[in-house]
């Protein structure tokens, strides 16, 4: 995919009344628009991912795949608060000429979608053939379909819900507590809170996986008194994220996650879901403890054109990244796309 930076020279007005001035959006594209501009496929990325879909969903992208650049013009935008090029906590605040750090405004999922709208208009896209996202990516896809229902033909909504649950929010708050417990997080530094973020990531991983995942992959082959595989794995995952992320983005994205509620100021969740017009494929994962399948079944039930399918997986929530064979089969079958066909 090819990376682009859109310096909007505009202000992104936020849901809470604050604003981000001189707003910048980082995004990736692949493929080309067809003559009728009817082949746009928009991907919404998840919590710690970036807009280069080929990096974190490589098995889903390529010739003959769901994300086929020979068939589609594929767009993925990095959302506000993240650390991959879109205006975030480490960006320079035009008012102070210094990085935002702790002063970054609290951005909502609707603000994410309004940023996507700015990019869509800049790219001259008037219609989106399909939007796809998993987890917090599905938050964005659903919110956008409610905000602009006439814009989309198809939506693929994976391992997510219509409103952040108390369970979701409790996990997020626990991770924020870990970051705040790191005394360096009070500092104005790009590396502030990094040790706390490592712990936060380890906590998050427990919600992304489950008992069986750890039993299958982190079981020690012999009895030990120390140096357990599960301990090494948790530390490794924290270190791995620390090499590419920062604690401020992690903290503020988790705050954005908590705001997800498609029914806010719309008469409730059920009323909001009734506005979706897209042919909607709702996918749950049997072992997902972060977003239990009843949440996806509810979304499918309340969307007029919603259809529910379930992936059988032992990988929990992370199944949306790992069970690509099942995902591909379900999406191809539901949308009646002929695999390996190279025309829209």
Strand order of the largest sheet: 1-4-6-5-9-10-11-12
Figure out the total of helices: 12
Q: What's the helical proportion of residues? A: 25-40%
Whole-Å distance between the termini? 20 Å
CATH class of the largest domain: Alpha Beta
Our Rg estimate from Cα atoms comes to: 20 Å
The pLDDT mean sits at 96
Main sheet: strands, sense, barrel: 8 strands, mixed
> How many structurally independent domains?
2
Low-confidence spans? 340-344
Return the structural class.
alpha/beta
Order of helices and strands: EEEEEHEEEHEHEHHHHHHEHEHH
Which architecture name of the largest domain does CATH use? 3-Layer(aba) Sandwich
Our estimate of the beta-strand percent is 15-25%
User: What name goes with the CATH superfamily of the largest domain?
Assistant: Alpha/Beta hydrolase fold, catalytic domain
Q: Choose one word for the global shape.
A: globular
What would you note in describing this structure?
- This protein is an alpha/beta fold.
- It folds into two domains: 236 residues, Rossmann fold, CATH 3.40.50; 90 residues, Rna Polymerase Sigma Factor, Chain: A.
- 37% of the residues lie in helices and 17% in strands.
- The protein is built from twelve helices and twelve strands.
- The strands form three sheets. Strands 1-4-6-5-9-10-11-12 form an eight-stranded mixed β-sheet, with helices on both faces.
- Helix 2 packs across helix 3.
- The longest helix is centred in the middle third of the chain and has 16 residues.
- The protein is globular, with a radius of gyration of 20 Å.
- The C terminus is likely disordered.
